[in-house]
Amino acid sequence: MRTLCSSTLIGEALVVLFAALVAMQLTDVSHGALWTVSGIAMVLCVLLCGMITRPGAVAVGWALQFGLIASGFVVPTMFVLGVIFAGLWWCSVHYGRRIDEIKAARTAAAAA
């Protein structure tokens, strides 16, 4: 699960960076506010990569996904990107847990 979620979060941090660069040219939002929000989102993505196995990290990841979708009110393209990354986040969490369960079952079977 850690690998899948971390890959999604790193990709998301890069997309937020590129979206911020585009948003600077397309919106009337102040550059300071734009970079502050984008910077917080990027740092949160990177921090979550290291904390993904801790309790509550998945919930923080979901909050991040909904925050990115909500940023679509400022930059409409972020609606689409936010939905795409929310879907990727769901897949990462869901299939990551399934893979971890299968590995644990194989380890238990091998030990028995």
CA-to-CA gap between the ends? 25 Å
Summarize the main sheet.
none
Work out the helix count: 4
In terms of DSSP E residues, the strand content is under 5%
Mean pLDDT across residues = 89
How big is the Rg?
Answer: 16 Å
Judging from the principal axes of the Cα atoms, what is the shape? elongated
Number of strands: 0
Quaternary: single chain
Structural class: mainly alpha
The topology string of helices and strands comes to HHHH
Can you describe this structure?
With about 110 residues, the protein is mainly α. It has helices spanning about 1-25, 30-50, 55-70, 75-110. The mean pLDDT is about 90.
Q: In terms of topology, how is this protein built?
A:
Layout: H1 2-26, H2 31-51, H3 57-70, H4 77-111
Helix pairs in contact: 1-2, 1-4, 2-3, 3-4
Quickly describe the structure.
This protein has 112 residues and is mainly alpha-helical. The protein has helices at residues 2-26, 31-51, 57-70, 77-111.
List keywords for this structure.
112 residues, 4 helices, 85% helix
